[in-house]
Amino acid sequence: MSELGERQAQAVAEALRDTPVTAVFSSPLMRAQQTARILLAERPEVPLHTSEALNEVRFFFEGQPLLSMASRDWDLYTGIDPTYEQPPDVVARAREFLTQVRREYTGQHVVAVSHGDVIAFTALWAFGVALIPANKHTLDNHGLDEAYPAPASLLTFIYAPDADERPTAVTYRRPYGEDLADHGVSPK
User: Fold this and answer.
1) Which of 54, 63, 86, 178 is deepest in the core (most CB within 10 A)?
2) Is the dihedral of CA 7, 8, 11, 17 positive or negative?
3) Is residue 135 domain-resident?
C-alpha cells in the first residue's frame, strides 16, 4: 500500500472512531487486508474475517496495465469471454455476503473492505438500477456525492428491522479532502 493509501485508510479509521464496530470483513487482496488492519489498529478486540465475496472482480484484464483498461473507458465487461465475471455475478456474491452478515450481526455495525467495481455495482443494485457497465460511473445520479467510489470511502447500507433484501438507506462519504484524493489513472 502506498503512503497515500495508508493516509486514506487512517482517515477512514478516524471517521469510524466513535462507531461501535462488531466485526471487519476484508477481501483477501493485500491492499484490502492492509486497510482492514489499519481500521483495526485501535480495536484489538474486533475480529478480522477474510471473505472471497468481497474480492476484486475476476476479469479479463487482471495483471494488465491500467492504461489498457482506461482505453476501454473502464468497461471491463463488454465483449469479454463469459467465463469472467459480469456485473450481475459480482452483485450476486455481494448479496450473499450481505445476507450472511445481516443474519449473523443483526443490529450491529460491520465494516467490509472491498473494491471499486464491487462497491459500485452493489450500490446500483441497492438503488434498483440496471447492472450494466455504462451505469457504474453514475452513483452521483442516485444521490451519492461521487460518480464512482473513491479509494477508502465509506458506503453504508442501513437496514430497518423489517427490511427485505435491499437496504432501506444508503449513505456515502469520502472521509478526507482533496489533499488526499488520488488523481492518477483510475476508474473515473
Assistant:
1) 54
2) negative
3) yes
Residues 6+ apart with CB under 8 A from 100: none
Region 20-43: mean pLDDT is 96
pTM comes to 0.90
Q: Can you read off the three cell numbers belonging to residue 111?
A: 465494516
CA dist., res. 52 & res. 64, Å (int) = 22
Query: Torsions phi, psi of 180, nearest 5?
Result: -110, 5
Of the chain, the percentage scoring pLDDT greater than 90 comes to 73
Mean pLDDT of 18-29: 97
The DSSP 8-state label assigned to residue 139 in this structure reads: G
Task: Report the C-alpha gap between 161 and 8 in whole angstroms.
Answer: 32
Q: How many domains does the chain have?
A: 1
Confirm whether 183 is domain-assigned: no
